[in-house]
Design a protein that fits this description.
- The protein has 338 residues and is mainly α.
- It has one domain: Orthogonal Bundle (ABC transporter involved in vitamin B12 uptake, BtuC).
- 75% of the residues lie in helices and 0% in strands.
- It contains 14 helices and no strands.
- It is globular, with a radius of gyration of 20 Å.
- The two termini are 12 Å apart.
- The C terminus is likely disordered.
Length: 338
């Protein structure tokens, strides 16, 4: 990594750290930095500021970090696998599958009564099962076709099919269940509290480690399947590993945070624009940290005084959609090297 890109990475980390601290300070009850430090290191559990930081704001900030890094890595993996600048976590139908899982569990509640699970954990379970079901279909399609374009089409068809079933369930669902489903679909970093955080942290950390271990094979794959084979890489195995890793990251984050729009699609383009490099040994770490920074920024916007209640997906879409339009409008080669 060049000095410029190393300085860029350190700068992004510093910005992310500042945004993380602002997450802990900002909210309905404003806190000072000394109060935050006291709550983190020697807080009294009976103190209201300590409880706010440890039980609400710190888990939400960590959730933003995990979601941003995981979706960014997932998006880059998809864009490299399909060699398509508009590929993202939703391209495999993962978000649609997760939404269908939640819809079946929430909107068709009389048919699927899971009495031993709280409502919020039932939604997480439904989303994860739905996302993994969509991933299984994609894996079967990949085994049969082994073609990136065909796989994109299958992913889109899975999304349309899930969307159609969700529309039917929405018509049949009760008003209360429909409201809960719509709120989940808006996305949020505030639902992963208490004992649920490790269930998000462990799969995302595992997926990020696998993605970082794939940096060299990803560089070869970017130049084409034939080139990768000439280097002795088992391309079918690599493709399935990428799909499983992307499914683990995208499915887990969607299950806990809802279908967050555009972060996975737009973040790799922001990272490419910053580092001007397609070498994954440079691009992947910068993409991950950029995802953390953007997720923390979006999470901070929706909790800023006066903007409370603003849907997270509205903010990520306002941030990500112009980037995607810029990619299409510019017509520049999206994977160019420096």
């Amino acid at each position: 990594m060049s000095r410029r890109n190393l300085a860029l990475l350190l700068g992004l980390l510093l910005i992310s750290a500042v945004l993380f601290l602002l997450h802990l300070i900002t909210g309905a009850v404003p806190l000072t930095v000394p109060m935050i430090m006291g709550a983190l290191f020697n807080g009294d559990e009976s103190d209201i500021s300590t409880r706010i930081v440890q039980e609400v704001r710190l888990p939400a900030a960590w959730t933003a970090v995990l979601a941003g890094s995981g979706l960014a890595a997932c998006g880059l993996l998809m864009q490299t696998l399909f060699r398509n600048p508009l590929a993202g976590p939703s391209v495999l139908g993962l978000s649609s599958g997760a939404s269908l899982g939640v819809a079946v569990l929430v909107l068709a509640r009389p048919l699927w009564v899971v009495a031993w699970l709280p409502d919020e954990m039932g939604a997480v379970l439904g989303a994860f099962i739905g996302a993994m079901g969509a991933l299984l279909l994609i894996m079967l399609a990949d085994r049969r076709m082994g073609d990136g374009t065909g796989l994109l089409i299958v992913g889109l068809m899975v999304g349309y099919l899930c969307g159609a079933i969700i529309d039917v369930l929405q018509v049949a669902g009760s008003d209360g269940a429909l409201r809960g489903f719509v709120l989940w679909g808006m996305g949020s970093f505030n639902e992963v509290v208490g004992s649920k955080l490790p269930w998000l942290m462990v799969p995302v950390a595992l997926g990020l480690v696998i993605a970082l271990l794939l940096m060299k094979p990803l560089n070869a794959l970017l130049l084409g399947d034939d080139y990768a084979r000439s280097l002795g890489i088992a391309v079918p195995t690599l493709r399935r590993t990428i799909l499983l890793t992307a499914g683990l990251l995208g499915g887990t984050i969607t299950a806990f945070c809802g279908p967050i729009a555009f972060l996975g699609l737009a973040t790799p383009h922001v990272a490419r624009a910053l580092c001007r490099n397609s070498d994954h040994r440079v691009l992947l770490p910068i993409t991950i940290v950029t995802g953390v920074m953007l997720a923390l920024f979006c999470g901070l916007v929706v909790k800023w005084p006066g903007l409370e209640g603003l849907p997270l997906n509205a903010v990520t879409s306002l941030l990500g959609a112009p980037i995607v339009v810029w990619v299409l409008w510019s017509g520049e080669r999206w994977a160019r090297t420096s």
